[in-house]
Protein 1
Amino acid sequence: MPELCKVNMGFAARRDSWILEHYRPFMKKLMTLSILFACSFGFISNSFGQFRKIPAEVTEALKSRYPGASNVSWKDKISVFVASFDMGNGKYQARFDENGEWKSTEKEITKDELPENIKDGWEKSKYADWNLNNVYSIELPDNVMQYRLQVSKSDVQKKNLLFNSDGKLLRDNITL
């Protein structure tokens, strides 16, 4: 009986060796094709990300609100249309609904341009020891101003902090 086990073990080892030898190249090709397919699908979905045509009301609303806008590009975010544009020395993003109603405008600003009460609010928050990466001012209807601070403690720990114009922390969202 022990001899029979040795024979079967030898056969199993040869069979496994044969399988590995013949199927390994096939598996490598399959993995490569799978990765290429996944990457190409991501590229195609980003290339053709615009699902709807930008309504004329929306483009006219941008021209009316920001007549000096240049290098305008549009994105359809399903619930709003986002226009990215340059004006003066700044880069902006304005959001409009499908009827052309303005929802908000965001502008990247420097830390020095940040109002003192926002700096004070950040310094008093639990994120005061985090690195300040980017700062944005957000104009909302009825002359409401908010500020979004992108902060990080490490490559993994990153947050978007949203402050009102009084320096009160409204939200702290995790970001990727």
Protein 2
Amino acid sequence: MKNHKSPAPEFETPMMRAYMAHRPALVDYASKVVGNREQAEDIVQEAWLTLSRRGAENDVREPLGYLRTTVRNLAIDALRQRVRESRLMGGDLESAARTAVDGQANPEKTAFVRRDLACVMGVLRSLPERQRVAIEMYRFADYKLREIADHLGISVSLAHVLIADGLAACTTRCGIGRGNFS
């Protein structure tokens, strides 16, 4: 009887061993960059998914260094995205919505916030359904780009473009960038 060796399971690759052995440290590293452990967990997982999809596992001499570099790049990208969105939205849309509902701000600010919120909701209704759903999932339900992409059957980069373009439309049409939500 011949001894047939089956291909090594995925968890036996050097990249997977490095990932499993150093995952907590990678999460700590990403967390220091983005300031949020939950987002850091997502970044580390996204790094693994990205690398495993590329088939880069067999071409890498230093798996841990490659993973750290990928995690760092994704964490910096996430941080840049957060800064961009903050600039686009002029502040936190959720806190503006709470202010409009609870009425704790002065009446003038409440009126401005309600007007801006109504404008944003009008812009969202005017967007194509896929783009509107992507923005609502991201901004109102805290879904990650990967989850949105999977739900809509699109790439993560397209999900990002849909959201960024939609938020830019809100900024342009509603003048939110002028600080109305700060």
Protein 3
Amino acid sequence: MKILVFGNIGSGKTTFCKALSEHLSDWEYLAIDDFRRTYGDNTFKGDSIAKSHFIKSITHDDSLQLIESSGFGRLGSSLARRLQKYEGELIVLVLLVKGDQCKQRLESREWDVPFPENTTKGDALVKKMDKLIFSNFLFERWSTREKTLFIQAPHIVPNDTLVLISTLTSYINTKGLANLNNHFI
């Protein structure tokens, strides 16, 4: 089984995934930013190398993987192609956090991720991704895949995060997705 967590820059993907991973100790946690820190060097070539290692780390076997990415761009397309071959269960969770709130969070963030574009362009990127997040783009990308649970989580605050984590872990531990076929919430 695999869980994909998608969202805008500053939407809380990393915070949510780290909290969720505490409850899923057997799961491997893969975040594109970690690969950028390891392989990136603020160049497009370095970013391409980081993305390549990230995609290659996603397995087609029954490994339990928690995967964090925005879900868009070339990386999102590569991720979708990679998981077309995966026949196991998949949970796609999209964090629906408005762009204005993402921008506020980014103002206090210290950028420690080697990224090939100037981080001062963050406002434009957040705005572009905001439109995609609130469109049907991700739903359309993942809706044809069997054994998929698609969840859109509106703006979440700490208490909502705990409820969502509890719901997900309970679902995974008791039901699984074995009989699930294109289910969307």
